[in-house]
Amino acid sequence: MKEAFLAFLAVFHGIVLVYYVVLNGYYLITSLFAFWALRRHARREASMDIDDLIATAGAPAVTLIVPTYNEAATIEEACRSLLSLQYPEYEILIVNDGSTDNTLEVLRQTYHLIPTPRYPLARIPTARVRATYQSRTHPNLWVIDKENGKRADAINAGINFCRTPLLCIVDADGILERDALIRIVRPFLEDDRTIATGGIIRIVNGCVVRDGVVQEVRLPRNMLAKFQVLEYLRAFLAGRVGWDALKIMLLISGAFGMFRRSLVVAVGGLARDSIGEDLELTVRLHRYCRERGLPYAIHFVPDPVAWTEVPETIATLGRQRDRWHRGLIDTMRRHLRLLLNPRYGRIGMVAFPYFFFFEMIGPLIEFMGYIVFTVVLLLGLAHLPFVLLFLTVTILLGAVISFAAVGLEELSFRRYPRIRDLLELFLLAFLENFGYRQLHTYFRFRGFISYFRGQTGWGHMERKGFQTA
């Protein structure tokens, strides 16, 4: 019996080590490609005037679609940010998805809304639209008031009322930088095959916001939010920049993504029964174009910024990550035919397998690995060379990836000007391995349980609002 148990441990240890080595090796590769891509991006920025590019190519009109549910705490500042964008021609559609707080009243009083007819150009099914309003002070600001149908349904309502060739989906708790639209639209101007682009999401907790603009960038005071700053830097700068360079962009964030309207309508809008509708839409766009032989490109642009508020309590963070993982599982299940299917090129052979084996199944391996590792230590069965190798792979390599993300931030954008903040980020890159990473793994593992128990809700997400002084 003991021999069988030891044999099981040996096999399981091997699986865990291979998982960690491959996962960290993947991140190292994408980090190297990200470094190369960011250097190239910086050289292009130095030799290119975006205003001249827009003047030459012509800026296509854009509609910002902002799904809103109980966002009274942040909606006023978010709207100010959107109304101050530097872009020749754009509309804002705030879609109030049956809010139960005073979100609509805040919008009505602040922006002097009046009932105004507006007719849909598409017929994607949605919950009933109750009324449409236009601002008397800002004619490009519209509010669509509808019955609750959840986020994807609200976005689909916005797509129906969109009149422009491009649409941009933005979260109501976010703040766009003033040149964000100009920068995120650039791939559409440079490459007519472009069907979607994504920008970077940065964390606004702790920053000073005035009149819808982030005036001073600071690290949050809350420790959970600090770890998420590092996590977002790693995900976007070490991850998606590398994905873009490798042409395997499988995810456009629903917090800040631009799409060609005609193609989104052609695929039927966002899946209303999906939990991870942003990932699902991106995968569906890949499938639609590849199955029809359509030339297309999906890009990530690292400098257009959307600032967003992140959870500062363990309970709220847990609900968010549980929902994210349920959305990932749902999308992988819906589009399983892409897995290792050469018909879909790099998406089917590289991007989808990574999400399937490492992002989706990975938390199961990690969570079981922590349990088995703890049991082995308690029983005194630990093999010292394996323990040292395990700690090296999980802690040192993980820290190296995070160090690389912070380094990419400092070399490319330097959004955190205070030396103290930069040093703290490097310290967090080491500390996150002792508690935060394990907590994150548990939340994702819990997402598995929630998904197979049929849970479909989003859960309550607390909003504290932006720091304005």
Characteristic key phrases:
alpha/beta; Glyco_trans_2-like; globular; 2 domains; transferase; Spore Coat Polysaccharide Biosynthesis Protein SpsA, Chain A
What is the compact description of this entry?
Belongs to the glycosyltransferase 2 family. The chain has 469 residues and is of the alpha/beta class.
Q: How does this model look, in words?
A:
The chain crosses the membrane at residues 6-38, 347-380, 386-408. It is globular, with a radius of gyration of 23 Å. It has two domains: 2-22 and 356-452, no CATH class; 58-354, Spore Coat Polysaccharide Biosynthesis Protein SpsA, Chain A (Alpha-Beta Complex). Helices cover 54% and strands 16% of the residues. Strands 3-4-5-2-1-6-11-8-12-7 form a ten-stranded mixed sheet. It has a two-stranded antiparallel ribbon with strand order 9-10. The mean pLDDT is 90. The protein has 16 helices and twelve strands. Helix 8 crosses helix 14 and helix 14 packs antiparallel against helix 15 (419-431). Strand 4 (129-135) and strand 5 (141-146) form a beta hairpin.
Give the fraction of residues assigned to helices: 40-55%
Biggest beta sheet attributes: 10 strands, mixed
N-to-C span? 65 Å
Strand content: 15-25%
